[in-house]
C-alpha cells in the first residue's frame, strides 16, 4: 500500500466521520458498575480522558483492547473510536469514565465482519449497562487548501448513457482524452475543447470517487479491467472501526496480499515502545512483527546502515565495529547535493529488505508483507554527511505490476517529515515511470497522510503544466488530458480526479470548461516557492529492466 509521506496530524484531530466525543469533565468513580467479575475487561467501551492539539481536555469514546498489571497497578490499552490507530495508548484507571461504560455481550467469539475471508475481526457485541450520553462533535476542516477555483470548462462528446459530472448536464460526461485549450487572460484561464474524443463504452468504464473540498464527491471515469476498487483514495482507510461496504477479493500480489494469520487483537496494538535509529529515537505508530522477545524492551536499537536490530546499546556498538556499510546496499542511481537514491533488489538483498519492511511497518498500517521481498524493488532516499548516508525514507514497487502501480509502499520517517521529502519521493517515483515510458499510480488504499501528499503533488504538477502553456499564432494553447498524462506520467484517472478535486471543471454553455482563477494561480505560486527540493532528471542514472523476460526475479 501506499502510505505515509506527510506530517503527523495533531494529537486531538479527528478522522472523517467524527462521532462519540464526550465533552465535559466526567469524574472517574472507582465505585461505578464494573463487569460481573468486578473488573474492566477487554472489549469494554467508555470515554477516556486525553489532551487534544489545543491542549484541551476531551473525553472521546474508546475501546479497551488489553489490560496489564505492573507492580499492582493496572494499565489499559485503548483505541479511540474513529481516531487513527497511531493515537492508541496505555492509560491509567484515573483517565477512565466508568459511569458510561459499555460491556461486551459476547467475550469468547469474535466473528469476522460480513463473514467473509480476509475481514478483520469485529468487536464483540456489547450491552450498555449505564446511559451513554455522548455529544457528537462537529468535524472541522484543518490546514490550508488552495482557493476554490471560479470556473474552468471542458467540452466532451460522449454517449448519453455515461454518468455526467455533478453540476453538469447529464448528456455531457467527462472524457480523459478530450482536447483542452487554455486561454490566458488577466483574471481567468480557460481551457476549452476543440475536438471530440473517442467515446468510451459505458459498460467498461466503472466509476471511482474522489472527495471535493469537503464531503461532496464526484464521479470519475476509471480505467477498465481494474481488479480492485479505486474509491479508496476518497475514503479514510485508516480507521479500524469503519465497516462500510463489502471488502473486495483479496489480492494475490503486491504489499497488500491477504494475510489472515494477522487478523487478531495482537496486531491492533503497538508492540514496540521505542526505536533508536542513528541520532533519532522514534515512537512507533503501529504493530510490527519483530521477534517476540524484543517487544518487552524499553528501546530497540537499529543499525542505521544495515537496519539490523539489537537488544541493547552494547549489542549495537559491537555490531558497528563489524558492519562496514555506510550506505544502503544496491546501486546508487541518483545523487544531487546531499540527497541520494539507492535501488535495492528484494531478492539480492533480502536481509536488508526484510529489515526495512519491519521498520516501515511501525509507521504503515496496511502493510502485510514483511519477508517475501523477492518480487519487489526498494528505492531508499538518503541524506549524506561525514558519517555516511542516513536513511530518510523509501518507496517500494513491484517488479511486474499488472495494474500500473509505480509505488507499493511509501514512507518518510517521522524525523524527516514536513521538510519536503515526501513530495521528493513521489516525484522520484514518477521520474522513474517517465524513463520506463509508462504512466503510474500508487497502490491503493492510500493512508490518510499518503493521500494528502499525493493530492498535493498531483495538484501542483498539473497546475504547473496548465500555467506553463503558451499560445501559438495568437490562438489559445491546446492540450489533452492524455497529453498531460504522458508529460507527467500521472495516470489519466488521477489527472481527472485532481481536476475535479480542485473544482476546476464546470459546465458552461453546453460544454465543459477549465478556468484557473487568480486565487488558484496565486495559491499555486506560493506553494511552489516553498517547494525547494526537486528531482533533477540529469542526475538520474537509471536503466529499466524488463522483468517479464527473466526466468526469475
Automatic annotation (TrEMBL):
Subcellular location: Chromosome; Nucleus
Active site: 443 (proton donor/acceptor)
InterPro entries: Acyl_CoA_acyltransferase, Chromo-like_dom_sf, Chromo/chromo_shadow_dom, HAT_MYST-type, MYST_HAT, Tudor-knot, WH-like_DNA-bd_sf, Zf-MYST
Segments of this protein annotated with the region Disordered: 1-36, 104-130, 162-260
One GO CC term on file: NuA4 histone acetyltransferase complex
Keywords for the protein's UniProt record, in alphabetical order: Acetylation, Acyltransferase, Chromosome, DNA damage, DNA repair, Metal-binding, Nucleus, Transcription, Transcription regulation, Transferase, Zinc, Zinc-finger
Reactions it catalyzes: (2E)-butenoyl-CoA + L-lysyl-[protein] = N(6)-(2E)-butenoyl-L-lysyl-[protein] + CoA + H(+); 2-hydroxyisobutanoyl-CoA + L-lysyl-[protein] = N(6)-(2-hydroxyisobutanoyl)-L-lysyl-[protein] + CoA + H(+); (S)-lactoyl-CoA + L-lysyl-[protein] = N(6)-[(S)-lactoyl]-L-lysyl-[protein] + CoA + H(+); L-lysyl-[histone] + acetyl-CoA = N(6)-acetyl-L-lysyl-[histone] + CoA + H(+)
GO process annotations (BP): aggrephagy; apoptotic process; attachment of mitotic spindle microtubules to kinetochore; cellular response to estradiol stimulus; cellular response to glucose starvation; cellular response to glucose stimulus; DNA damage response, signal transduction by p53 class mediator; DNA double-strand break processing
Compositionally biased spans, kind Polar residues: 173-184, 204-215
GO molecular function annotation: chromatin binding; DNA-binding transcription factor binding; histone H2AK5 acetyltransferase activity; histone H4K16 acetyltransferase activity; peptide 2-hydroxyisobutyryltransferase activity; peptide butyryltransferase activity; peptide crotonyltransferase activity; peptide lactyltransferase (CoA-dependent) activity
Assigned EC number: 2.3.1.48
SMART domains: CHROMO (SM00298)
Record's compositionally biased regions (Basic and acidic residues): 12-21
Residue ranges of domain MYST-type HAT in the record: 267-544
Similarity remark: Belongs to the MYST (SAS/MOZ) family.
Name of the protein this chain belongs to: Histone acetyltransferase KAT5
Amino acid at each position: 500500500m501506499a502510505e505515509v509521506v506527510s506530517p503527523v496530524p495533531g494529537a486531538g484531530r479527528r478522522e472523517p466521520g467524527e462521532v462519540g466525543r464526550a465533552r465535559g469533565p466526567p469524574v472517574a468513580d472507582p465505585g461505578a458498575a464494573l463487569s460481573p467479575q468486578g473488573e474492566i475487561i477487554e472489549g469494554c467501551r467508555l470515554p477516556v480522558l486525553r489532551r487534544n492539539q489545543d491542549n484541551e481536555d476531551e473525553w472521546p469514546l474508546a475501546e479497551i483492547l488489553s489490560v496489564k498489571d505492573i507492580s499492582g497497578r493496572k494499565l489499559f490499552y485503548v483505541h479511540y473510536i474513529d481516531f487513527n490507530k497511531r493515537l492508541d495508548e496505555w492509560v491509567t484507571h484515573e483517565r477512565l469514565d466508568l459511569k458510561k461504560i459499555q460491556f461486551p455481550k459476547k467475550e469468547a467469539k469474535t466473528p469476522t465482519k460480513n463473514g467473509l475471508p480476509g475481514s478483520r475481526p469485529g468487536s464483540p457485541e456489547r450491552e450498555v449497562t449505564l446511559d451513554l450520553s455522548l455529544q457528537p462533535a462537529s468535524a472541522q476542516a484543518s490546514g490550508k487548501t488552495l482557493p476554490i477555483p471560479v470556473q474552468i470548462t471542458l467540452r466532451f462528446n460522449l454517449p448519453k448513457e455515461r454518468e455526467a459530472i455533478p453540476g453538469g448536464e447529464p448528456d455531457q460526461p467527462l472524457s480523459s482524452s478530450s482536447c483542452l485549450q487554455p486561454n490566458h487572460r488577466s483574471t481567468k484561464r480557460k481551457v476549452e475543447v476543440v475536438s471530440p474524443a473517442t467515446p468510451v463504452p459505458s459498460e467498461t468504464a466503472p466509476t471511482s470517487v474522489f472527495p471535493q473540498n469537503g464531503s461532496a464527491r464526484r464521479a470519475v471515469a476509471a480505467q477498465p479491467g481494474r481488479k480492485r476498487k479505486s474509491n479508496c483514495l476518497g475514503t479514510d482507510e485508516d480507521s479500524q472501526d469503519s465497516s462500510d461496504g463489502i471488502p473486495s477479493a483479496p489480492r494475490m500480489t503486491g504489499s497488500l496480499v491477504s494475510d489472515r494469520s494477522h487478523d487478531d487483537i495482537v496486531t491492533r496494538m503497538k508492540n514496540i515502545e521505542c526505536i533508536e535509529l542513528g541520532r533519532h529515537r522514534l515512537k512507533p505508530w503501529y504493530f510490527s512483527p519483530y521477534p517476540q522477545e524484543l517487544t518487552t524492551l524499553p528501546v530497540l536499537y537499529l543499525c542505521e546502515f544495515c537496519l539490523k536490530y539489537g537488544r541493547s546499546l552494547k549489542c549495537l556498538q559491537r555490531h558497528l565495529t563489524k558492519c562496514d556499510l555506510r550506505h544502503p546496499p544496491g546501486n546508487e542511481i541518483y545523487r544531487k547535493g546531499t540527497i541520494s537514491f539507492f535501488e535495492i533488489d528484494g531478492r539480492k538483498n533480502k536481509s536488508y529488505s526484510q529489515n526495512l519492511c519491519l521498520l516501515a511497518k511501525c509507521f504503515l498500517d496496511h502493510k502485510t508483507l514483511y519477508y517475501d521481498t523477492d518480487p519487489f524493488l526498494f528505492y531508499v532516499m538518503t541524506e549524506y554527511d561525514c558519517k555516511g548516508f542516513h536513511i530518510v525514507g523509501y518507496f517500494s514497487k513491484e517488479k511486474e505490476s499488472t495494474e500500473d502501480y509505480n509505488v507499493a509502499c511509501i514512507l518518510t520517517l517521522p524525523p524527516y517529515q514536513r521538510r519536503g521529502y515526501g513530495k521528493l519521493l513521489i516525484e522520484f517515483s514518477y521520474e522513474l515511470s517517465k524513463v520506463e515510458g509508462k504512466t503510474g499510480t500508487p497502490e491503493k488504499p492510500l493512508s490518510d497522510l499518503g493521500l494528502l501528499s499525493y493530492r498535493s503533488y498531483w495538484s501542483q504538477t498539473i497546475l504547473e503544466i496548465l500555467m506553463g502553456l503558451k499560445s501559438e499564432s495568437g490562438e489559445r494553447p491546446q492540450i489533452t488530458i492524455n497529453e498531460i498524462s504522458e508529460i507527467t506520467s500521472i495516470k489519466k484517472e488521477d489527472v481527472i480526479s485532481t481536476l475535479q478535486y480542485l473544482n476546476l471543471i464546470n459546465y458552461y454553455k453546453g460544454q465543459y470548461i477549465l478556468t484557473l482563477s487568480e486565487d488558484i494561480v496565486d495559491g499555486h505560486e506560493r506553494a511552489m516557492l516553498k517547494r525547494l527540493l526537486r528531482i533533477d532528471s540529469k542526475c538520474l542514472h537509471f536503466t529499466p529492466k524488463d522483468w517479464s523476460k527473466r526466468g526469475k526475479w
